């Protein structure tokens, strides 16, 4: 039986090719690379699995340092000597070692490890990751791209430049009048594209409803995501009760336990699935079961992960029926995916059928751009 012998962690700077601002602030630009944490797990018989997550503390609390050291000091020791196929036992040990407080404990660190373990299992069993998740429903996955907060004119031009993309997540700032102009500019630039408003917690309930009232004649707006603060479930409920379009929850729902609470409170019509906040693929899949059993629509998204995190989400989302194209931004914002083997044509990605993730990490790039992170 295979045994895990090495767990290597590589905090790495991955360059960006465009500016990216969201409702909670700055994400990155051409002069500020994003911090990504890559995980490489190796067995005694030479199998290797890779995982990745991006650190973005303005979105959630984990930092590059905390993700790196949590894996190095608290998770890696639990993996050494273990059979990577013992999925349930490994995850139970990690869960007990890094406990959640209320919702989820160090989910980004766990997610990077979880992806690497899934990749490793797929390579050992010689099956693609989507097979481990129950099998793909779709051979390809259309992509949606986020539009960074900017002037209406620039947002419209950027949408047009991404044609034939058929769906845009329009980032908004919390100002109903300014955000109405942004949405109208994007709609005028791409009148056939579906629009997905993402406030990233920047609105109050009253202002969110004002924006929806201002834009109610833009028929291509499908939903509004996380209009209010992540902990303001009653604010979400208030918006949902008076909104004429579906209201989606993201930052306010990290786990399937959170989603059960959201269902009971009746404060969302849809949930945004993210591997990072769920603590990995396994946790994210559990949320889909709660959602489907309660008629909550599924939206797929990421946190601008590079190719490893990107393709892990592709495998998962290909097993589901999402109501909109998956918003996975790496092709639009990153200077490199740091992998080979990702096939994208006209903003539609082919779901890989090779073992594990089905892509090959650019290990030279990952190591050459390694960040210095204190191990203390």
Commentary on this structure:
The protein is α/β, with parallel strands linked by helices and 376 residues long. It has two domains: 4-126 and 362-368, Enolase-like, N-terminal domain (Enolase-like, domain 1); 131-361, TIM Barrel (Alpha-Beta Barrel). Helices cover 38% and strands 22% of the residues. The protein contains 14 helices and 17 strands. It has helices at residues 64-79, 87-97, 107-125, 129-132, 152-161, 176-189, 205-214, 233-242, 256-265, 275-278, 281-293, 307-317, 330-333, 363-368; strands at residues 4-14, 20-22, 25-28, 34-43, 48-55, 140-147, 167-171, 194-198, 221-225, 247-249, 270-273, 297-300, 326-327, 339-340, 344-345, 348-350, 360-361. Strands 6, 7, 8, 9, 10, 11, 12, 13, 15 and 16 form a ten-stranded mixed β-sheet that branches. Strands 1-4-5 form a three-stranded antiparallel β-sheet. Strand 10 (247-249), helix 9 (256-265) and strand 11 (270-273) form a beta-alpha-beta unit. Helix 1 (64-79) crosses helix 2 (87-97), helix 6 runs parallel beside helix 7 and helix 7 runs parallel beside helix 8 (233-242). The protein is globular, with a radius of gyration of 20 Å. The model has no long low-confidence stretch (mean pLDDT 95).
């Amino acid at each position: 039986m295979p045994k895990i012998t090495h767990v290597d962690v590589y905090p790495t700077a991955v360059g960006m090719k465009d500016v990216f601002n969201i409702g909670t602030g700055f994400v990155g630009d051409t002069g500020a690379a994003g911090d990504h944490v890559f995980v490489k797990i190796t067995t005694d018989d030479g199998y290797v699995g890779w995982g990745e997550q991006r650190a973005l503390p303005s979105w959630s609390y984990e930092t590059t340092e905390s993700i790196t050291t949590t894996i190095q000091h608290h998770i890696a020791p639990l993996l050494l000597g273990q059979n990577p196929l013992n999925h349930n036992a490994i995850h139970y040990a990690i869960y007990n070692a890094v406990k959640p407080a209320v919702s989820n404990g160090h989910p980004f660190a766990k997610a990077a490890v979880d992806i690497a373990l899934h990749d490793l299992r797929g390579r050992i069993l010689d099956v693609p990751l989507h097979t481990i998740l129950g099998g793909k429903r779709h051979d390809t996955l259309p992509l949606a791209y986020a539009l960074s907060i900017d002037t209406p004119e620039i947002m419209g031009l950027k949408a047009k430049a991404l044609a034939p993309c058929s769906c845009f997540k329009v980032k908004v700032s919390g100002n109903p009048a300014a955000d109405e102009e942004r949405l109208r500019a994007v709609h005028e630039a791409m009148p056939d594209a579906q629009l997905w408003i993402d406030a990233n917690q920047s609105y109050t309930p009253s202002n969110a409803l004002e924006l929806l009232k201002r834009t109610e004649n833009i028929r291509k707006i499908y939903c509004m995501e996380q209009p209010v603060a992540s902990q303001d479930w009653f604010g979400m409920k208030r918006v949902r009760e008076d909104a004429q379009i579906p209201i989606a929850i993201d930052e306010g729902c990290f786990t399937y336990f959170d989603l059960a609470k959201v269902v009971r409170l009746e404060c969302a019509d849809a949930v945004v699935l993210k591997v990072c906040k769920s603590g990995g693929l396994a946790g994210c899949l559990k949320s889909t079961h709660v959602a489907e059993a309660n008629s909550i629509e599924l939206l797929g998204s990421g946190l601008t992960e590079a190719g490893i995190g990107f393709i892990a989400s592709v495998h998962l989302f290909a097993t589901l029926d999402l109501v909109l194209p998956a918003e996975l931004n790496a092709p639009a914002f990153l200077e490199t995916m740091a992998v080979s083997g990702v096939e994208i044509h006209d903003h539609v990605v082919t779901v890989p059928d090779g073992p594990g993730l089905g892509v090959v990490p650019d290990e030279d790039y990952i190591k050459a751009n390694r960040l210095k992170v204190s191990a203390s």
